[in-house]
Description:
- By secondary structure, the chain is α+β, with helices and mostly antiparallel strands.
- 39% of the residues lie in helices and 18% in strands.
- The chain contains 6 helices and 5 strands.
- The chain has helices spanning 6-9, 50-59, 75-80, 109-117, 119-144, 148-154, and strands at residues 18-24, 30-36, 40-47, 83-85, 90-92.
- It has a 3-stranded antiparallel β-sheet with strand order 1-2-3, with no helix packed on it. Strands 4-5 form a two-stranded antiparallel sheet.
- Strand 2 and strand 3 (40-47) form a beta hairpin.
Amino acid sequence: MAFYPLKQMAHPMYQNNFKAFVTPREDGTYAFCFSIEDAMDEETFIYGHVEKDISFIKERELTDEWGLMDKNMPINHALNKVKYDDKQHQLEGVSPANQKKVFLHLLDENVKQKMAVYQSLAQKWILLQMKCFDDYHRPLCWLHSDGWYRYYKHNKNRK
């Protein structure tokens, strides 16, 4: 959420009433506090517990809101078809238009070679990419659709 223009997250009627700030905490995490005067009390989300964030993301329900996989088959079936092609330097099972979205450039060449041999590594990479996208994209969708309260209730345990 930090990379999204915060003011745009509020309904246009309340954009001038939107206030947000990030504060470092003693434990090395950050408190993200925001409020919308006359519409929403101040809420605080804690970020920076990397292990907790990763665990939370891994436990998410698998969806493909990002649109990486073939929509004509169940998500798990499409995911099982994913494998890394070391000749083409891309993932099979992911459309050419979505290749840049899977961030293969972040992986070391040795990891890519292992993905070519062990198909399950490529599948786990895509699985985590989809869950990360959902985790960071969903709050923006909900805020735009007046669903911030559902997001807050859904993520309360993450504090």
